[in-house]
User: Fold these one by one.
Assistant:
Number 1:
Amino acid sequence: MAIEGVSTEPAAVVTGAGHGIGLATAHALAAAGYRVVAVDRDLGALVKADLPEGSVLVEHDIADVEADALAGLDAGLRIEALVNNVGVMDGRSFLELPVADAARVLHTNIVGSWAVTRTVVDHMLARQVRGSIVFNLSLHASRVRMCPDYSMSKAALAMFVQELAMELGPAGIRVNSVSPGAIDTGHGPSEDADGHRARSAALVALGRVGEPDDVAKVVAWLCSEQAGYVTGTDIRVDGGLFHYNWLHHLYGSAATERDRTS
Ligand SMILES: NC(=O)c1ccc[n+]([C@@H]2O[C@H](COP(=O)([O-])OP(=O)(O)OC[C@H]3O[C@@H](n4cnc5c(N)ncnc54)[C@H](O)[C@@H]3O)[C@@H](O)[C@H]2O)c1
């Protein structure tokens, strides 16, 4: 793990900062005045990514829970925010997925996030920092994804957020989560990407797929003093996608028909 460029400014650790929502979050937190500690297992992605100037790059796989994610970080660095953004998914269903591969996902998402959180919380408590921790969950913490490794890991983290909020509240450390809906981080299907995007957008009340920045802005707000009395809460950032359900399927066209005839 290589760590460079430490400082005494307020800092924010973002896991999975090399791409997508993590990268956008790094920018939102830098704009809010934090020195970003950008953690990613892919050092190449960190180096290539257009991270905020002065970011501290940390090559670390959160699944490696024996390694200290902040080892070697300057003692003067004051971490005031942690964004547990990493969340992996195998992509196969229960019947397709060998147990060992399911265990790898659960280990990374749940135990890996636990380990990073423990390291940062120890740092905050030692310095009496009244910090903020935000987990990046998913609508699939409570809605079926047909990828149970992923959805059950998000559900477990949703409970972890509530446990931590209660345990760390007395120390002034707030713990919350965001649950993004469909966010375009460039991982859609390579074939008919525009069609896929349009079909996804049609399910969203606000009529568009989300951008990483839509999520990053809410994460930055949760880290800010504006959210100083908010803990143990999840904020959906989904343009209303959560509320799409079977009734739209049954009656959506009927409503359109009514509109046409009235
Ligand atoms: N994109 C979406 O539509 C969406 C929707 C809901 C929730 N989310 C959640 O948002 C988070 C980020 O998703 P994204 O789409 O921006 O991802 P992404 O694939 O665009 O970027 C993920 C980054 O995390 C890094 N990473 C992966 N595993 C790691 C590990 N074990 N240790 C350290 N770094 C690791 C990758 O190298 C990459 O740079 C995830 O938790 C995901 O579940 C995404």
Number 2:
Amino acid sequence: MSASERLHGQVAIVSGGASGIGLAVVDRFLAEGACVGVLDRQGGALGDLQAAWPERLVVVGGDVRDGAAHEAVLEATSQRFGAVDTYVANAGIHDMWTRLEDIPLDQLPGAFEELFAVDVLGYLLGARVMAGALRAAHGSMIFTASSSSRYAGGGGPLYVAAKHAVVGLVRQLAHELAPDVRVNAIAPGATSTGLSGLSDGEVGRGSLLDRPGLMDRVAETVPLGFVAEPGDHASLYVLLASADEAPFMTGTVLPSDGGLDVRRSGRHHRAQRVAGTIGAGGA
Ligand SMILES: NC(=O)c1ccc[n+]([C@@H]2O[C@H](COP(=O)([O-])OP(=O)(O)OC[C@H]3O[C@@H](n4cnc5c(N)ncnc54)[C@H](O)[C@@H]3O)[C@@H](O)[C@H]2O)c1
């Protein structure tokens, strides 16, 4: 074991681990000595990931809206590697900043159902399935929240409300699962990924990649002056996963957002000007 293997011998499951922030977490957990199970809907990317890490990774293709998919990744991971210590709930979609008044009334229920089913129900189903195993292992859950868990403007009302709901899940589950399981979240700010929009109806379709120059404009609203790469958040997930490094942390939401909380005292003139056109700092 190398001195830097902070998760040596641990087993983790990551949803949405085929790309973006989830993939960066998978890569870092593997580098820190963990074995990892990944649940994602992107079959091709999962195959590439499995080929790159044949020994310490298992992948399961499925939809986080399906409880059986979470059961399948738990079974595959524990059969291969033993007891599961950490569950990272991360798979998510965005509403592409669709404002309430731009959502046709007849499409609002469907858009709500799709976004909340992935971003909130998906986390709940995963937590429900993993809870018993994590209690037995005295492990931890880590949810990917967002700067939209705290601020307006990083999405439309569907995304911002869903990410606020994630904070409620963290608090309630930290309460219900104590003292056996620690439950925390990382709240990334704007991060350069291909985060997808909705796909079931006409509302909020596309991805962050469809908006050229978006990340440059968002960077203007961030006190540190740049948009994160997915790997910039990864060591915080390691911190929360480690019972040695964060034994007394539960119910917390750690921001990793370039300092949005101090925006008014920093680069606020530019931030206010840009936020007026594109919202407040990423997804
Ligand atoms: N990119 C940002 O600026 C940003 C900021 C804050 C929070 N987040 C959050 O980070 C998380 C990861 O997003 P990302 O930016 O890395 O985007 P991403 O699209 O690269 O990653 C999301 C992953 O989730 C998977 N996924 C989506 N819906 C799924 C479903 N129904 N079933 C199974 N897998 C599904 C996708 O295939 C993808 O691999 C999300 O929860 C997102 O809300 C992103």
